[in-house]
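Blackboard transcription, Thursday session:
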Amino acid sequence: MFKSEQPELGEAKRLHGAVREVALDDGDYTEVVPGSQQPLSRRRSATNKQDLLSLLPDCVLGEIVTRLPTRDAVHLQLVSSRYRNAWRASPLNLDVDYRDAARVLVYRRCHPGPTRRLRLERLTTSYYGDFDHWLLFSPALAGLQVLELQLQTLDNVSRRPLPPPALRFAATLVVLKIGSFTFPSPPAAAKTKPLRFPRLELLSFRCVDISEAALHGLLAGFPALETLVLDECVGFARVRITSATIRSVAVSSAGLQSDQATAILPRQVTIEDAPRLETVVPFRHPSCSDQCRRSLDLRIVSAPKLRVLGGACRPRPCASWSLAPRYSK
Amino acid sequence: MAAPESGDGNNGAARMVTLISSDNTRFEVEAAAASLSQTLQLTILDGGGGGGDGIPLPNVDSATLSKVLEYCIKHAPAAANGGAPNATAVDRAELERFDNEFVNIDQSVLYSLIMAAHNLEIEGLQSLVAKKVADMIKGKSPMEIRRTLGFPDPTPEEQAEMNAHMLEYGWAYE
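(Written on the board underneath:)
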């Protein structure tokens, strides 16, 4: 513990108070300067009143701006031209849903890149083609760290093929979340060169169709994976997890196949060797039948640090994702 | 004097260093905690700050420094483990709770903290305060952002510039 010789901590708190009185100049501060009929605050706001951000150096401002969702960053740049420059100079944090698809083009025009985070939620099939093209060719997306793609579906059954360019960010991605897509199967993708995601820490698949071979090929390429979520995925019967880095696994029973919408497939999840694993959450949906609940077979061979093993019932089947703060850099 | 850096010195013999704020207050703190500051790290590794010497920090006042050190002391054990690999979920949740509480402060204090984190190059604190400010801006309109941050009302030129921008791109703001 540290000791402060003088002043005491209480004194320090009072000092904070003193600073506040001098620096924080909000609207209802009405000290009147002798010899002047005008309240001090009015004069200050006309002359040298400065806001919190104006006092900060550019690099700090950039740090702040890059943490903002696109919409707020755009609002901030309307506040002053300095913020606009800060926004343009920092990596883009692009967060849009399908109605915003056209806006992306505006943001792109105002912002030269690079992009740190791209979240496309509730993509509709009509915009889908444009984004495919954009993901493939935009140099502004080089170095992307967070990619979230969620297709808009009504039934959790229909899927689209994942745009192949989505995988071109494998080298830099830290977070990958995909919903309602079909993952390319090995003959097409992995035969040539197995995919490697050297920095990926969080992988979340929701209603994704992926073959067993593709899934295992994928899991072998995550040397840094900490969190794995497999929610209502189809296309495989068994998963084996062997990872030196993984901390938490959440897995649900299989989702519905589009062609056999009533069939419930058994699912076997085996955790073979996970020295750091702390949490395993096998979960089910409120609408799930008893048969569906029993269709998840979880086996743990070696997980010495496991603390939490429990089921969870999701409040809503289509709860939207949220991004853990630590990834929103 | 140049005792080797003891990473997780929870014993009484952990090496202490003295930091001196701009208003000449002396703070004695564990070297491991002060070393969260990239700026101080080299000096401390060289054996500075021990004994009666102390490291002067002319840019940081005592109130801010005490706040900064509160953060460093809390985060030093986790940092000594090389980030988080060995930390349990409970430890991490506790740090997160501390962080949230820590930045629940007045704007002027926040400003001093941002500057101190920047000057002392304390990475975790820098991102914590940046996130706090970002949270203050989130979900607000340009005028609300101005008010929140204590920004003066726009000058006629700024207003004209904003209007021109809105005319061209306004539909994109809905």
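Lecturer's comment: Strands of chain B lie at 16-20, 26-30, 55-56.
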